[in-house]
């Protein structure tokens, strides 16, 4: 039943990476989430990444139907979900086949042998059974008759059909993993009690199977309990595990409360952005108006209408949706209304790779509209700071009366990490430009001197009735104007307004070397990968490498040039063909920029980055 | 829709902006503008609570000529923007001013979904069966064979009937009026304002430049009473100069009969029920070519989107433990790091 191969590397001390893989119906996301939450409560630092197919229920046992969840837990700071896997839990041959590449030699694989049938081996295109043909001899393979033992554990439990029994085998594997990493079952049992409140038989069944897995691992001492990971050193406070899309939604809720404006979301479902809509529709108790529109265009236009009427207006989308919204975003820019557009980037172009990550919408965000049409562009860089940057997007939109595009991506949107909970009292103030006072010669295009933001008179305000629109307007009265000089002037005003935002954002910071031989530059969702690679190379003794990560892209922080000038070489790393570097090259033409690009729908790996950096120093 | 009432007595001048009106001389758009400016003081709504939203096209210049709040937006998208305005502030009287191309070609998707949802706002569609602002291409209501700049040998694309499309999308309020009938038009605007739900008013609007006379056979002074039937809820469907023609149902078709001929009496004539939920007869009236049905064809009071949303929100608020975001953020699965 259990065979242990030669144990090449019995323990990991500071951090481990565990990956759960199975059929998309095997409950791997749930298993992974439970392990994550339990570890977080134990005090570990965490980063997770789900990896699932676009098919909802792909044919059972097929290679393309494999769904996975990876979690990196550590007693030290963890900034990515990890490249290579210390423990792989594979529920069937297809899952093993598609994920074996990630397992470090000498490390552990748990398989459900019951699923290694002839039929499943064929589906996974295995000519011989890998459990028998010696192909796994460099790994420590723990073979468990998981399905059989799950059925055994559930004998005598009333009210379960065959399907329910088989479906709970994921809890058997979770029980084993809990024992291996010295984790308590308590959190997961609590979870069963809540989730299956009305179905006591399911509480009983899942608890039994979880325990069975745990005791099975304990009884067979063949599994050394070597992986005890201590709690990480983290800033004291209240934490919770949060996914990037939830953090984004919550940042918007916080901005709504802080600004005193009602939140309006106009949205159309699109992967991987839809979870923001799912989250916001829950919060009617805060007066959130979440409107699922008939298409992407109605999503953004309804938000523009809500902005005109005085709400904090949001639209959420992913790449193809941003393309559809382009004309309307141009209108919002032209009529100078506050609007937050959230683009959770995915692999493009066209339909591209909907469930994979990429940073290839940067130039679309910058320039994807007709005419001279600048907007603020910012990017979140971790699952947890999606909260801060969603809040920041709302703050900048309201304080500068302009659309703000917030870029996140599938990697951070679906990933999760500990978030130190922010109380609304600790969040920065959010001002807005609403006016109610009737003055002589008032115009909707009267501007704040410092920011050039126009004032915001909303329908329902007596005496300030006015008309705005997409046609060019006179710089003073706001009436339609086709005057050549006025058009040029207005074009400059709109650009200057966005440029002036640099006075309202923090300076660019560097990490590791603050001057030296090489500056590593990244932006958005690659923060974790880049930070971890620069840290590693720095730990190896390369103390002359610095790291600067951009969250503010248009405008950039004021001190950008100063930072660039402190290093001999600069490398810009992006998950696209070189979009941010093209902006930097135009803007800071006196510097030379190297670039490292990856367009595989995957995040950077540590090894590839370090290899690149070493070539330059 | 009926929202706020006001003590202040407005006149049409209170709704007239200082902008020079730039439609072609003789255009029916002037009639629509003036009818609206005359109707608004009768609605009992505060000026600051009125919002006009338009897309692109001749019709869409409308908001600039009103002295209320307004936005001239992008082609076809006024329904989305107007819906957002109304959802953000349900107290407003929101009007979409659109044309046949703006609403049913580039904005066709938004048009049907607006009607389906039944948000409490109003849409006035200026139907001139042509594209005016882009200078004379066929529209989704142009006739087969119609020669236009983009169909020099005749249009090959069959038209929509706006009313049929609207009722198919479950419009609760549909009225049709000709561009040379300002008096009834103003009253229909008032009735549309009072109606709770999405109101659609199709105005058959003559384009003097690119499609002049396209509605003459029903709108000409000489013939209009014989060619149009002006429908009023609760009244018999009678028309004609001599008020002697009427509509009856013959099998599955509407038929024109003459009162006093073949034993037909006034009792035989159908009575218009605009408030009926069943739209079968309304659809027949909308499709009728002779006489052309005008007036309020359908006015069925239904639950609005806002009513449903408000009820849900109230219920969720009453039952929720979350009053502030802190309640949410610190709830559930949190843990302490010391």
Describe the structure.
- The complex is a heterodimer of chains A (617) and B (338).
- Chain A has 617 residues and is α/β, with parallel strands linked by helices.
- Chain A folds into three domains: 15-219, Pyruvate-ferredoxin oxidoreductase, PFOR, domain III (Pyruvate-ferredoxin Oxidoreductase, domain 3); 240-426, Rossmann fold, CATH 3.40.50; 510-616, Rossmann fold.
- Helices cover 35% and strands 20% of the residues of chain A.
- In chain A, strand 20, helix 19 (579-587) and strand 21 (594-597) form a beta-alpha-beta unit.
- The longest helix of chain A has 20 residues, at 200-219.
- Chain A is globular.
- Chain A starts with 14 loop residues before the first strand and ends with a helix.
- Chain B is of the alpha/beta class.
- Chain B has two domains: 12-234 and 273-309, Rossmann fold, CATH 3.40.50.970; 236-271, no CATH class.
- Chain B has eleven helices and twelve strands.
- In chain B, the strands form two sheets. Chain B has an eight-stranded mixed β-sheet with strand order 2-1-3-4-6-5-11-7, sandwiched between helices. A three-stranded antiparallel β-sheet of chain B has the order 8-9-10.
- The longest helix of chain B has 15 residues, at 29-43.
- The termini of chain B are far apart.
- The chains are: A alpha/beta (617), B alpha/beta (338).
- At the A-B interface, helix 1, strand 7, helix 9, helix 11 and helix 12 of A face strand 1, strand 2, helix 2, helix 4 and helix 10 of B.
- Strand 7 of chain A pairs antiparallel with strand 12 (334-337) of chain B.
